[in-house]
């Protein structure tokens, strides 16, 4: 290879594995040639690299760790190798998301590897570059966590919590990337509410096992044949390796239409077995393998797929069968092997409506429209995704099914929701408040329907069962009985925690930002202020909905000295119960982000970056300046 920087050992491995003879002279096959042979050589080289990253680095590292009693956690993305195999080799596959690069279907590669391999935990580097330094809110972090949960993650950790000595002063020593999730950041005041939400979610998402029914094959050999440059990392930032391939189209269709799936690799399919009409892998059983439209497939993979069908499994090829093998080494022999496998299958396919299908042993091979094939074998999609913005993860725990359901739309939902289960009852579990109860249910067309009230951005767990849960009371649904009333009067505002110093107390009848109500000290303040008002019940009864409107950025609410909860998400409302007819004392503690405080330091030219050997930058990786 002209101008190569790889070690001689790598080329020897490459030649040995792919059936090449290595010669010591220059060739442009890797470099500029674009003919079919050159592309095939490059594809062979990429597959060799993938194998070596797995076999010479990841697997020995895992074995070394296990001999010493360690578990391993690996972020495989960014590697030029097959991410599914690399993720699966570790005990805890780990993904991540950034503010501009959040794609649930990319992060599903980590969870898919865990599900197929049987690893119980899927990790995520969480909160990195959710927004600019000191502007990230707990709501931003929750939205990040929610997307990770939807991707199958159940083991998050915050990235940006770092040590700082007391003498460093505010804001202390910092990690170069946001979020600054540490006690020096003002949002730490209400972080326990977010942590409690995460804890409740993960306690259910770690229980039982995933309940996906489809394995979605990754035709990586087509990618390796087309990819440029020679070595390209498969990152979470640049996702053309997924989005511009047939895999991306099928994955997005299945996701949008409510079909639960996990990606699967050639190596993973080689160990799968057909058992009782299902496809068994280390992590559980699936009902079908879907193969996106692809040109190239190793003959061993095609043989493995047909063996699954012979044993009673279902294999679905989107639109067509593969027609060629990848790579150039031993090309003609491998092409003959592929055609020997394909020919009897192609001749046995019979047209059935929009599908062609063939009985292979005890199972079936379909060629055509993916959803039609899945429906033909009796699979039912989750029709709840027909509601705009509704997304879910489904798990099974004994005889129960457990749904994590999120309303990502901008509209509140109050209606019946169909589930693809035939159970008769359901319990609702609110991970934000820990409220639980038996849901109102009905059965329509063989599907369980649950009545739900879900605000924008709100998540709920639905746990279905054959019989109603015996120890839970009925879920309390809300129904307005009157119109809104403004809490008019005199508000006393006291700054109770934060810096650089506590502004003077103030009194106002007009609620507004404290940067408007207070003086210069309030304009540079970051922390918590308590708003207090005394009011009489606006109508008969003792239950009212408190609607706070816009809150910057989180709040704790007390009524008559009793804690009612912490809110850090729109629509910033909660139930006020035990309201007295007269003389109620409402206290609302509001906590801001630290943006104004760090802005003040930069405007005054204070040198606060008192840490060394760190590339402290803004979200665009440019020098950080908060003065504007």
Uncertain regions spanning at least 5 consecutive residues: none
- How far the N terminus sits from the C terminus, by CA atoms, comes to 51 Å
Radius of gyration: 29 Å
Q: How is the biggest beta sheet arranged?
A: 7 strands, mixed
Widest β-sheet, arrangement of strands: 7-6-11-12-15-14-13
Average pLDDT works out at 94
| Alpha-beta content class | alpha+beta
Spatial shape = globular
Number of strands: 31
Key terms for this structure?
628 residues, alpha+beta, globular
3D structure, described in words:
α1 (8-18) crosses α2 (36-67), α2 (36-67) crosses α7 (220-226) and α5 packs parallel to α6 (191-205). This protein starts with 7 loop residues before the first helix and ends in a 25-residue tail after the last helix. The protein contains 16 helices and 31 strands.
Summarize the helices and strands and which ones pair or pack.
Layout: H1 8-18, H2 36-67, E1 73-74, H3 83-89, E2 92-96, H4 104-117, E3 123-126, H5 138-150, E4 155-158, H6 191-205, E5 209-210, E6 214-217, H7 220-226, H8 240-243, H9 246-256, E7 261-264, H10 266-269, E8 273-275, E9 278-281, E10 284-286, E11 288-291, H11 299-310, E12 314-318, H12 331-348, E13 350-352, E14 355-360, E15 363-368, H13 370-376, E16 390-397, E17 400-407, E18 413-419, E19 425-429, E20 436-438, E21 441-444, E22 447-454, E23 459-465, E24 491-499, E25 506-508, H14 514-517, H15 520-523, E26 526-535, E27 544-547, E28 554-559, E29 562-567, E30 573-576, E31 584-591, H16 595-603
Parallel strand pairs: 1-2, 2-3, 3-4, 6-7, 6-11, 11-12, 12-15
Antiparallel strand pairs: 5-16, 8-9, 9-10, 13-14, 14-15, 16-17, 17-23, 18-22, 19-20, 19-23, 21-22, 24-25, 24-26, 26-31, 27-30, 28-29, 28-31
Helix pairs in contact: 1-2, 2-7, 3-4, 5-6, 11-12
């Amino acid at each position: 290879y002209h101008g190569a920087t790889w070690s001689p050992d790598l080329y020897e491995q490459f030649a040995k594995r792919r059936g090449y003879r290595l010669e010591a002279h220059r060739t442009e096959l890797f470099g500029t040639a674009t003919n079919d042979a050159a592309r095939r050589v490059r594809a062979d080289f990429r597959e060799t690299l993938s194998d070596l990253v797995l076999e010479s680095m990841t697997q020995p590292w895992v074995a070394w760790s296990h001999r010493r009693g360690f578990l391993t956690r690996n972020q495989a993305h960014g590697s030029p190798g097959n991410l599914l195999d690399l993720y699966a080799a570790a005990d805890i596959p780990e993904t991540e998301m950034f503010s501009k690069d959040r794609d649930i279907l990319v992060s599903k590669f980590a969870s898919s590897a865990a599900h197929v391999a049987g690893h119980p935990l899927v990790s995520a580097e969480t909160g990195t570059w959710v927004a600019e330094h000191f502007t990230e809110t707990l709501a931003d972090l929750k939205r990040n966590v929610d997307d990770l949960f939807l991707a199958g993650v159940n083991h998050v950790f915050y990235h940006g919590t770092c040590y700082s000595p007391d003498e460093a002063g505010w804001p202390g020593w910092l990690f170069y990337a946001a979020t600054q999730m540490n006690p020096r950041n003002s949002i730490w005041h209400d972080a326990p509410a977010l942590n409690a939400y995460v804890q409740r979610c993960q306690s259910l998402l770690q229980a039982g096992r995933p309940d996906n029914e489809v394995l979605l094959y990754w035709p990586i050999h087509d990618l390796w044949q087309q990819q440029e440059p020679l070595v390209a990392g498969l990152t979470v930032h640049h996702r053309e390796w997924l989005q511009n391939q047939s895999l991306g189209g099928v994955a997005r269709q299945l996701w949008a239409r409510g079909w639960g799936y996990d990606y699967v690799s050639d190596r993973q399919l080689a160990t799968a077995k057909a058992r009782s009409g299902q496809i068994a892998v280390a992590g559980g059983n699936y009902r079908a393998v879907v193969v996106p439209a692809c040109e190239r497939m190793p003959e061993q993979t095609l043989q493995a797929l047909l063996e699954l069908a012979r044993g009673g499994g279902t294999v679905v090829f989107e639109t067509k069968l593969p027609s060629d093998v990848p790579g150039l080494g031993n090309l003609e022999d491998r092409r003959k092997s592929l055609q020997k496998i394909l020919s009897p299958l192609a001749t046995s396919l019979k047209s059935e409506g929009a599908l062609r299908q063939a009985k292979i042993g005890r199972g079936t091979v379909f060629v055509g429209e993916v959803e039609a094939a899945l429906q033909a074998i009796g699979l039912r999609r989750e029709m709840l995704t027909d509601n705009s913005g509704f997304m879910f993860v489904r798990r099974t725990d004994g005889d129960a099914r457990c749904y994590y359901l999120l309303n990502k739309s901008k509209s509140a939902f109050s209606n019946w929701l169909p589930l693809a289960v035939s159970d008769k009852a359901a319990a609702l579990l609110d991970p934000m408040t820990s409220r639980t109860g038996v849901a109102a249910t009905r059965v329509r067309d063989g599907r369980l329907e649950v009545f739900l009230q879900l605000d924008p951005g709100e998540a709920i767990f639905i746990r279905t069962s054959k019989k109603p849960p015996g120890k839970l009371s009925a879920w309390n649904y809300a129904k307005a009985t009157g119109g809104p009333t403004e809490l008019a009067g005199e508000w006393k505002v006291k700054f109770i925690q934060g810096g650089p110093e506590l502004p003077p107390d103030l009194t106002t009848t007009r609620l507004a930002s404290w940067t408007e109500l207070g003086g210069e000290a309030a304009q540079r303040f970051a922390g918590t202020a308590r708003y207090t008002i005394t009011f009489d019940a606006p109508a008969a009864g003792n239950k009212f909905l408190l609607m706070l409107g816009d809150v910057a950025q989180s709040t704790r609410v007390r009524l008559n000295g009793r804690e009612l909860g912490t809110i850090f998400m729109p629509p910033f409302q909660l139930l006020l119960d035990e309201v007295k007819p007269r003389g109620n004392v409402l206290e609302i503690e509001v906590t801001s982000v630290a943006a104004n405080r760090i802005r003040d330091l930069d405007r005054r030219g204070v040198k606060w970056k008192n840490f060394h050997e760190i590339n402290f930058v803004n979200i665009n990786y440019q020098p950080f300046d908060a003065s504007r």
